[in-house]
Amino acid sequence: MPGDRGFLPVDPLVPELLARCDFPPAGTTVTCALSGGPDSSALTALAVAAGLIVNAVHVDHGLRAHSSDDADAAQSIAADLGISCRVVRVDLSDGPNLEARARAARRAAIGAAALTGHTADDQAETVLLALFRGSGATGLAGIRHGPTKPIIRLRRADTHGLCKQLGLSIVEDESNDDPRFRRNRIRHELLPLAKEIFDRDVSVLIERAANLLRDDDELLDELADAIDPTDAVAIAAAPLPLARRALRRWLTDDGYPPSAAAIERVLGVARGEAAACDVAGGRRVHRSRQRLRLSL
User: Fold this and answer.
1) I need a labelling partner for 196 at 20 to 30 A (CA). Which of 171, 245, 255, 283 fits?
2) What pLDDT sits at residue 252?
């Protein structure tokens, strides 16, 4: 029963799911982002079952009248799993770019190394969002696999099933049904339509494509590392995909890469077609003595 930490490893579903996860070795101390929903609850339960020392954190954005109920639910789930849950409240108002602002606030509150409950279904949605933004291989590679995304190979059906089997009282965030957010429309409208058209689970195919693109993307990164992005002659002579990539990595600011148009302008400076150009954030690139220099 919940509350007894010994119940997790003996549940037959747990070892099956853990075999598809990428948790660190037993005894490692980790922070799990625990919203109280099925994905984060399954993440936290599996982290406990994997023998990790788990610190759960719930972020209350204060956007809904009963958001404190979610915090109570998260603490109750943590107690069922035999761990504690710290609640962090952030001041966030509704308005433009709400999803991005909420993600940034959540990440600031839980820390960059915290584990999050992203699943293969999140991956499919992320890849489609990138596709309709016109992203290249880096964006279409989707969510990067790694230590902070240990359940990325699981499906939402897996996390819901585990929570039900363990008797965890999860909460459902009604904002996940809000059609204002494109991700929700992809989840509830586009993916079901694609499944109907192709008569199969297209999320699996999208995940496969993202994995293939991720391998390509990592190889291109390695090749681009050999190019000095400030060497105008080297940039002008390099294969175009590598030149663009080297410049993009050089000019990325606080995790935000420059636009494709800005990269093309910088390439023009490297080729001597222009003396200087503007890039994002009020910055400017100019060419001097065969070098590209960045200034404000």
Assistant:
1) 171
2) 93
